[in-house]
Specification:
single chain, 423 residues, 16 helices, 70% helix, globular
């Protein structure tokens, strides 16, 4: 009996020590990554403000592309796979260089300045993952602990830029392996995300504020309409993923030289912008998301955003795909919601979280982001939509190295990566 008590006491002490250790490491990660991502956010805002003030700055996009390719070649990092490399580092022992954080920081700012159609959270994942890996190297962690600190860095970066620490924590432990979650990383991820959000707020980073206007109570007819909308969003998320792959395949086949490829892609973006007669599809497009949530969206805006983003990323410009996916979801949801008789603001919000779920395959992160962005008033609608989109989007996704460890359709394990048709 006395021996058992000693064993239990020792176990409890070990658990407490581990808990405090990871709290400290999570806080350290949050401080470091939060500070760097705050600077990143300032630079992005500054670059976007210059582009908005100078109406023809987007004509410099090919030149911006040349600078990006030169930087990656100069630092011998042109073969880097971006976010896919970060996700792969959670599965395996591949190395993440500190160069990743520097290059994605600078190149994303340059891309936004030139009007490339990209987001910021995908870049933040690379910054956070790279900085987390660097911290792990400095502290001489083993491979298992390095993977946890990488996830903590991802959570901290996502939280600092989007201001959604709960989503950031779940996204970090969910994105690598769909169907299983890295619960061992939960405590440091939560700590890192909360600290990072606080650091960003103290340093003046502004959060995106979204508001949903809806007075439609949940009922069978309205629920079925949301199911239909979410099913269509799942189809759009597959279209987005396939268009990204096709654009990458075509541009790499037509232009094997990376300088020529990125200049050609930049010129194509300029031509499309002039043909459209608007710069709404350049940059992150946060203002268009806000307009959609207010009930105003061009019917074909989601298709143009898919085209602009696919060309930008396939050509070699740097940035993320998450904010563009929110743009696509908001505009498509607003458009289709008006046709099927749903409140436009609610439809835009449902479209945002449905597309986010469809392209990332992160079920729980998608549900939590709906709460953090829009509140709990329409929680049942979001739950229905996300579950529908998660199942119907199949095994497609933005990230090539993301693994589906458990089937979406039956209670059985599977071990495959997201589908990529154009190889």
């Amino acid at each position: 009996m006395e021996k058992n008590i000693k064993i239990y006491a020792l176990t409890i002490c070990q658990n407490i020590i581990q808990y405090l250790r990871w709290l400290f490491l999570g806080a350290l990660t949050g401080i470091v990554v939060g500070g760097v991502c705050s600077l990143f956010s300032w630079c992005l805002v500054f670059a976007a403000d210059i582009r908005t003030a100078c109406h023809y700055t987007f004509l410099l996009l090919p030149l911006c592309g040349l600078i990006i390719v030169f930087l990656y070649k100069k630092l011998n990092y042109e073969e880097n796979k971006g976010t896919d490399s970060v996700i792969e580092s959670i599965h395996s022992d591949i190395s993440l260089s500190p160069k990743m954080a520097f290059l994605i920081f600078v190149s994303t700012v340059i891309t936004i300045f030139g009007g490339g159609s990209v987001g910021r959270e995908g870049a933040a994942v690379q910054i956070g993952g790279s900085l987390g890996k660097t911290l792990g190297d400095i502290l001489r962690f083993d491979d298992k602990d390095k993977r946890i600190i990488i996830m903590s860095g991802i959570a901290a970066a996502f939280s600092a830029l989007f201001g959604t620490p709960m989503t950031a924590s779940l996204f970090a432990i969910e994105v690598a392996s769909i169907g299983t979650m890295y619960y061992a990383a939960l405590v440091p991820c939560i700590c890192a995300a909360l600290i990072s959000k606080k650091i960003a707020a103290l340093l003046g980073v502004k959060e995106d504020a979204f508001h949903v206007f809806n007075d439609l109570p949940l009922s069978v007819p309205s629920g079925l309409k949301v199911v239909f909308l979410a099913a269509c969003c799942a189809a759009v998320s597959i279209l987005f993923c396939l268009t990204l792959q096709l654009a990458h395949k075509l541009l790499h086949r037509c232009f094997s030289n990376s300088y020529l490829r990125i200049v050609s892609g930049g010129c194509l973006i300029i031509l499309l912008t002039l043909l459209c007669g608007t710069q709404d599809y350049l940059g992150t497009g946060i203002h268009i998301i806000e307009q959609a949530l207010d009930g105003h969206a061009v019917p074909y805006a989601f298709l143009l955003k898919i085209l602009f983003t696919s060309i930008t990323i396939a050509a070699g410009y740097r940035g993320g795909e998450i904010v563009p996916s929110l743009f696509i979801g908001a505009t498509f949801g607003c458009f289709l919601g008006g046709l099927i008789g749903l409140p436009l603001s609610l439809s835009a919000a449902v479209g945002m979280v449905s597309i986010f779920c469809g392209v990332t395959n992160c079920l729980f992160a998608s549900l939590i982001i709906s709460f953090e962005l829009f509140g709990f008033a329409d929680a049942y609608y979001y739950l229905i939509a996300i579950a529908t989109s998660y199942m119907l989007s199949g095994y497609f996704g933005l990230y090539h190295t993301q693994r589906i460890t458990f089937s979406k359709y039956e209670n059985s394990p599977t071990n495959q990566r997201t589908n990529h048709w154009f190889k």
